Amino acid sequence: MAENKISFLQEVLQGLTKKRFAPLDFLGTGSLTERVFSLALGEEPPLMPGMLGCGREWQQLADGLRGFDVSGLRVVALGGGTGLSKIVGGDSRRPEWRETPFSGLKEIFPHLCSIVCVTDDGGSTGEMLKDFPLIGLGDLRHVLLSSVRSSSLKNQYRLDDEKAAETAVILHRLFNCRFNRSPESAEQLWQESGASPEALPVPLAGYLSDLVRRLFTDQRMKTALQRPQCCGNLLIAAAIYGKLPSFFRTTELIANQKRLQSATLEGISDLALAIGAGRQAVLPCTATPAQLQVLYANGVLVTGEAKAGAAERGCPVEQVTVRFSEEPQLPDEAAEQLRRADIIILAPGSLYTSIIPILQVPGLAELIRANNNALKLLVANIWVQQGETDATLDAPEKRFYVSDLIRAYDHNIPGGIQNLFSHVLTLDLADIPGSVLQNYALEKKEPIYVDSERVRELGFEPVQGRIFSQDMLRREHIVQHDPAALASAVRGLWALRTSGFLTTPLPPTVRRSAVIAEHLVNICTDRLLPCIRSEEISRIVGTLAFRQISLLSEQPKDLEVADREQLAAAAAEILWRHADIHPAHLSSVRGISLVSTARWSRSQQWDNVFSFYDPEDGCIKIRQDQAEDISRLEMPLLVGLGQSLLGNYCQEKHLEPVFFRELQAGRIYWLMVREQQELNSFLSLDELDEYLQLAQMARSPKQRRLYARTVNGEEGFMPPGLLFGLFFAWYLDNRFAPNIDYMMSVRKNGPSELVAKQAETVRRQEKLVRFFRERVFRNRIS
C-alpha cells in the first residue's frame, strides 16, 4: 500500500515538472522543495490564465503530501522546554492549550520521542534544586504535558473524544498549578489546582492521587512544599522518589548516583505512560545533574541557565559548556531511539540553553551523525533573544541571521555540526505584515533574518514556509511556531524525500568555524551540587549577626526577630541566585549591619556606594534604605561580600599629598599588606600581590608588602578594596556597578590603534577579568 502511494506521488511530481513551463514554476519563488512545501501547508495555488488545467494535478499533489502515511516512522525531537513542547503538541503552559491539546508532531507521528535538556534552573525548577539532588525538571514537565496524546488516552482508558479532551484539561490544571504557600493537605492541593480526581479515569486518578499524597507523607518532600512551586515538578519528583527507599536521604542519594539516575528514568517513564504520553515519549538527555556555563567575549563566565539568560553582559557569547556533577551517561533508551530514528528534529528554542547542552552529552551527537538514513532537520528560532543571540562574535552590532545560529552550533558542539542536520526550516518574514514586525520592534524584539545563500554556502538547504500560527497572527498579532503546520511540514518533507524530489544541500563552499572538541565534557567534582550549596548557604546565613546602627546609638543593636528573618531570607536568596558564589566566599563574614541613612551621610569613612566590609568586626555594613527590598539590597550585599574576600589584608593605608615647589602636584596612596601569619583572606599573598598590581598599585622593590599609587592633581581614583567589591558585583551581573562597566568601555568599544595607553588598558582589563574568573571564582577554561 505504501509503495503504491510513493509511486503515485512520483508520477504526479514528474508530470508537474516535465512540461516546458512546469506548473510548479508558478507556485512562487525558491527551491522546488519550498514551492511544493507551500501546498503541504495548505496554501492555494495561483489562478492564472492557461494554468486552469493544472488544478487537478495540484490538488492531487496537495492531497498526496497531506495524506502521506507516516504512522510507522520513528521520530526523535530534541530541545528545551518551550520550543520543543510547542512543536510536539503546543505550549502546554498557556491557558489556550486546553482548547486544542491534541495537535503537533505527536498526532501525526505516533512513534515520537522527545529528548529534553536538563540544565533548567529557573523558577520552580530552581526551587526544586534547593532540596533535591536531581536534574532540572521544568523542561521535562513542560514537554510531558505537551506529549499527551488523544489516541493513547482513548485506548488506555477506553475514553471517547470528549472524555479524552476533558482529561487533558484536568492534567493541564494539575501540572500548571502554582502556589507560594504550602497547601495543608493533598485534598487542598487538588482543590487549589481546580483539577478534580473524580473526573479522571479511575486508574489515572489513583496513580496521580498516590503521587500527591507522597508530597505530604514522604519526609524528603516536605521541605520543598514550603517553597514557591509548580505542582507538575513536584509530581515528577514524587514519581522518582517513589522508586527509592524512604531511608535514602540526600547524602545517600548523592553517594548512590547510579541508583538515583535509574529511579529518575523509571519515574519519568511511569508518569509519561500514566498520563497518556507513552512510556518512552519523553526522555532526559542524561540523568546526571548538570549546570550550564556561558563564557562571554569579555572573559566573564556565568554559571546557570536562568542566570545566563538574564545576565545582560552586553557582548557576544563565545563558548557554552555544561558542567556535569560526574561522568554523564546518555540513557540507553535515548541512544536506541536515535539509532532507529527515521526523522531527527532539532527543535527551536534558546540557542545556547536547549540544543547545545543536549549535544554536549558524550556520545549523543555521534549517534545522530552515525544515523545516515534519517532525515535530519533544524527548526530555526523566530526571534532574537536578549543576552544570547542579540550579538555575534564577528560583528556584535549587526543583525542576527540563521547562518549565525548554525555557526554558533558549529562552535559549541563537540565535532561541529557535520551530519547533525541537512535542512533548516524557517519562517518567511515576507509573510508577516510589516505592522506586526514594527510592534515587536517597539518591544525591542527583532526577528532572526533568513540568509538563504549563506546557509547554502555552509552546506545546508533552507526551507522557508508558513510554519507560524496564522490564527494567533490574525487574532493577537503574535508570531510563533504553529504545531500543526510544522508537523505537516515535516510530513511533507518526508514525502518529498521518499519520492526523490527533496532538494538536497550542496557541499559547503565556505570554511566553518573551528570547533571545540572533547574538552567540552566538563566534569566538575569539586563543586557542590545545588542542593548541598543551598543547605550550606542557609547554614552560614543562619549563623550571621544581623544588627542595626542608628543615629542615636554608638553600639549596634540586634534587629527584631521579624526583621532579622526577612533580611536573612533575602540575603540567602541573593547568594543562591548567583551560582558562582561558593559558600567559602562567606568565610570572613560574621554579620550584616544596617546603618541609618542619617548616620551614613555624616561619616567620612563611609562612601556613596552604600556598602563596605569592615574587617574590624567582620560585618558587611549596608546603608539601611538599601535593604528595603531585595532588588535594592542585591548590589550593596555583593559589593560588601566582594570586599570581604580581601579580609584584613591591609595593615595600614594612607593618602598623602605630593608637593612640588609649594604646589600640590597630586597625591600618593599607599598601603601595607599584613604578614602571612596575620592574614585572614580568601586570597593567598601571591594572589593579593597579583590583584594589587592589576589594580595599578606598584610594589616596592625593597619592601615586598608595601604598595603605592600616584594620583595626579585632584583626580579621583578607586582604592583597591572598593574596586574589588565593585568588580565582584559586576562580574556576577552586568546590571550592577555601572562605574565598573564604564571602566570596561575601552575594551567593549575596542582600543584605538593610535593610542598605546588604551591597548595597555585593555590588556590589564583582560587580566583582571581572568583573575576574577580563575582566582576568585575558581573557574578555569580548557
Task: Describe it.
This protein has 782 residues and is of the alpha/beta class. The chain has four domains: 2-66, no CATH class; 72-117 and 285-527, Rossmann fold (3-Layer(aba) Sandwich), CATH 3.40.50.10680; 122-280, no CATH class; 530-776, no CATH class. The protein contains 33 helices and 22 strands. The strands form five sheets. The protein has a seven-stranded parallel beta sheet with strand order 5-2-1-9-10-11-12, with helices on both faces. Strands 15-14-16-18-17 form a five-stranded mixed beta sheet. Strands 7-6-8-13 form a four-stranded mixed beta sheet. The protein starts with a helix and ends in a 6-residue tail after the last helix.
Question: SSE layout and pairings?
Answer:
Layout: H1 2-18, H2 32-40, H3 55-66, E1 74-79, H4 81-89, H5 105-108, E2 111-116, H6 123-129, H7 138-146, H8 150-157, H9 161-175, E3 178-179, H10 186-193, H11 202-217, H12 219-225, E4 229-230, H13 231-241, H14 250-255, H15 257-274, E5 282-284, E6 290-296, E7 301-303, H16 305-310, E8 317-324, H17 332-340, E9 343-346, H18 351-359, H19 364-370, E10 375-379, H20 402-412, E11 423-427, H21 434-442, H22 452-457, E12 461-465, H23 470-476, H24 483-499, E13 521-523, H25 530-543, E14 545-549, E15 557-558, H26 561-577, E16 591-595, H27 597-602, E17 611-614, E18 619-623, H28 630-644, E19 650-660, E20 663-673, H29 685-694, E21 698-699, E22 706-712, H30 720-732, H31 738-743, H32 745-749, H33 756-776
Parallel strand pairs: 1-2, 1-9, 2-5, 8-13, 9-10, 10-11, 11-12, 14-16, 16-18
Antiparallel strand pairs: 3-4, 6-7, 6-8, 14-15, 17-18, 19-20, 20-22, 21-22
Helix pairs in contact: 1-3, 2-24, 4-7, 4-24, 8-9, 11-12, 11-13, 13-15, 18-20, 25-26, 26-28, 28-30, 29-33
InterPro entries: CofD (IPR002882), CofD-like_dom_sf (IPR038136), Gluconeogen_factor (IPR010119)
GO molecular function, one term: LPPG:FO 2-phospho-L-lactate transferase activity
Keywords: Cytoplasm
